[in-house]
Automatic annotation (TrEMBL):
Keywords: ATP-binding, Cell membrane, Membrane, Nucleotide-binding, Translocase, Transport. It holds the Pfam family ABC_tran. InterPro entries: AAA+_ATPase, ABC_transporter-like_ATP-bd, ABC_transporter-like_CS, ABC_transpr_MalK/UgpC-like, Mo/tungstate-bd_C_term_dom, P-loop_NTPase. It comes from Nonomuraea cavernae. Residues 4-241 form the ABC transporter domain. One of its GO terms (cellular component) is ATP-binding cassette (ABC) transporter complex, substrate-binding subunit-containing. This is ABC transporter ATP-binding protein.
Length: 365
């Protein structure tokens, strides 16, 4: 299956507001692409346009040379002729069909002979761990089980493109983790192209080969997960990807407090650089002894949040609130003072774009 290409795609549901604005996006053949962004940013609309469930208001959608939508040329290919498997959050199973019959339904429509149908449905249900409930009806299943049946229904068809809209949202934490690994395995083994909508940055970071971050209908950045994390294009991406989030300290015209000391620190290393914001990721805010006392700041502990193998500490340094993520126990109480320091910073310009990143171990990154 060739690449899926969206060129200049926009969608308005009427009323002048655009849910998706001038989107150029290529989903490479075999990619696991996550569309990531906050609620209402246009992810679902984009996925529905790729599926053919919504028609764009402008632009072109193509798979290789085959045009699926072209507003300019008046072309539109309906969903059933796109050969794409869909699983949406509202996984509409047929209530009057058993789990097995639901999964077999798509195969029956494709005229797959009965014995093969049974075998493929059973294998797909086993993959999502609902094979024990094969003869039950959807109303007798939990929400999470229904969601997995919807996944199995799509997997049984073996489509070359899978379009998934928050398909793991109803699962508990453990099952979610299991299904993420399972989806990754399915992707690796099938070679299918997957487009996956999520607002959960961890889900995107753990599964995707490529992440398209969207905000207010616009693409903010398209990159591989680690690239996105290490070199966010702008403040929006920097703050959206990563948990706890990156703290960005604003540098005013006459910076005081932490902003002033960070700026002096930046200036001593990057002459002529005038950032409007300085970002520090929690894991880069260090609580161990600094290599240079001049780098350190006194921080007031506001909260310590232990999580078994890591400790998140909310700190206040003068006028700024920051998080530190430590993998060694933090024996501090709210109200205590800790010395912290950093050797990694992201510098953002006036408009919010990242102008550079500084990492003591990789100078010039
Ligand atoms: N059928 C519709 N009619 C009118 N407006 C719509 C329709 N569907 C979506 N919208 C609007 O388009 C914008 C984008 O919605 P969309 O569902 O694509 O976002 P999303 O990022 O998937 O959000 P969520 O994660 O909440 O599903 C929102 O402002 C939404 O209110």
């Amino acid at each position: 299956m060739p690449n899926i290409t969206l060129s200049g795609v926009a969608k308005s549901y009427g009323g002048g507001d655009y849910a998706v604005k001038n989107l150029d996006l290529t989903v490479p053949d075999g990619a696991f692409m996550c569309l990531l962004g906050p609620s209402g940013c246009g992810k679902t609309t984009t996925l529905r346009m790729i599926a053919g469930l919504e028609q764009p208001s402008a632009g072109t959608i193509a798979v290789g040379d085959r045009i699926l939508d072209s507003v300019e040329r008046g072309l539109y290919v309906p969903p059933e002729k796109r050969d794409m498997g869909l699983v949406f959050q509202n996984y509409a199973l047929w209530p009057h069909l058993s789990v097995r019959e639901n999964v077999e339904f798509g195969l029956r429509m494709r005229k797959v002979p009965a014995p093969e149908r049974r075998a493929r449905a059973a294998a797909a249900l086993k993959m999502v761990h609902v094979d024990a409930a094969m003869e039950r009806y959807p109303s007798q299943l939990s929400g999470g089980q229904q969601q997995r049946v919807a996944l199995a229904r799509m997997l049984a068809i073996n489509p070359t493109v899978l379009l998934l809209d928050e398909p793991l949202s109803n699962l508990d934490a453990r099952l979610r983790l299991e299904m993420r690994a399972e989806l990754k395995r399915i992707h690796d083994e099938s070679g299918a192209t997957i487009v996956f909508v999520t607002h959960d940055q961890l889900e995107a970071l753990t599964m995707a080969t490529d992440i398209a971050v969207m905000n207010e209908g616009e693409l903010q950045q398209l990159a591989a997960p680690m690239e996105l994390y290490a070199r966010p294009a702008n403040r929006f991406v920097a703050e959206f990807v990563g948990s706890p989030p990156m703290a960005i300290v604003d540098v005013g015209a006459a910076p005081t407090g932490l902003a002033g000391s960070l700026l002096r620190f930046v200036e001593s290393r990057a002459a002529g650089c005038a950032p409007a914001g300085i970002g520090i990721r929690p894991e880069a805010l260090r609580l161990d002894p600094p290599p240079d006392a001049a780098w350190s700041e006194e921080a007031l502990v506001e909260a310590v949040l232990p999580a078994g193998s890591s400790w998140t500490v909310r700190l206040r340094i003068l006028d700024a609130e920051l998080y530190a993520l430590s993998y060694t126990p933090v024996e501090a109480e709210p109200g205590d003072t800790l010395t912290c320091w950093t050797d990694q910073m992201h510098l953002f310009g006036e408009g919010g774009d990242r102008i550079s990143s500084w990492d003591r171990t990789k100078v010039g990154a």
